[in-house]
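Hi C.,

You asked whether I'd gotten around to modeling the 247-residue construct. I have! Everything is below, sequence then structure, no commentary in between.
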Amino acid sequence: MEKPFEVAFPNGSKVRAARVSSSDELPAALRGLDLSHLRPVLVLVGGAGGLDDADMPRLRPLFTEALAPLAEASGASVVDGGTDAGVMRMMGRARAEMNATFPLVGVAAIGTVVLPNAPPPRPDAAPLEPHHTHFVLVPGLDWGDEARWLVRVADALADGESSVTVLVNGGDTAWEDVSHSVEAGRTVIAVSGSGRAADALADALRGEANDGQARELARSGLLRAVDLSAGADTLAGMIEGILSAEG
């Protein structure tokens, strides 16, 4: 396994990163990043490049009023896809705005992201989000290759502590993220009204879905839904209840 290194961003931030090639390397990689302390884990998945810019203002309170404050108050780690887009950008900025201290760990496939001062590995490669605190770079050349690794990193970080996945909006990769979370036995909260995959899963929970995959995931018993219009406090309360019940 390679030694941890720093990723330097134009805004002056320097973020510690580790590159792994197998899941067996994860415990040592997390220790090398000083992330081996037991704490609850919140996995954030959902819309990235496909998230409409017009949706950002109405989704922003989920991050500034619910997810970031809850992570800070509970001492949780947050794990997401790490790129400077969609829900990951909003999570990073929400953490920065409140000067929070919780770990925000981005998990990204090495062949899909642009490292500062390095050529892009593919034309649609995405930059990393500069307000994250750590990155775990995993094998993969295509979007979605990080999905299984996201769950592995979350499992390794939690190490028996409570965890929950929150889905906001989301496209094709989000379906993979939710499926992997369910396979790992992790409860998934879909934010209804945020669009796309989250709405489809909320429909399935109400018995209104035409999508077979959504119906199958709903039958797992691990899905929950909260409506965006219910406000940030309702989402925060649901997350707290799940983390408390599993802790």
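If it helps when you're writing up: Residues 56-74 form the longest helix (19 residues).

Thanks,
B.
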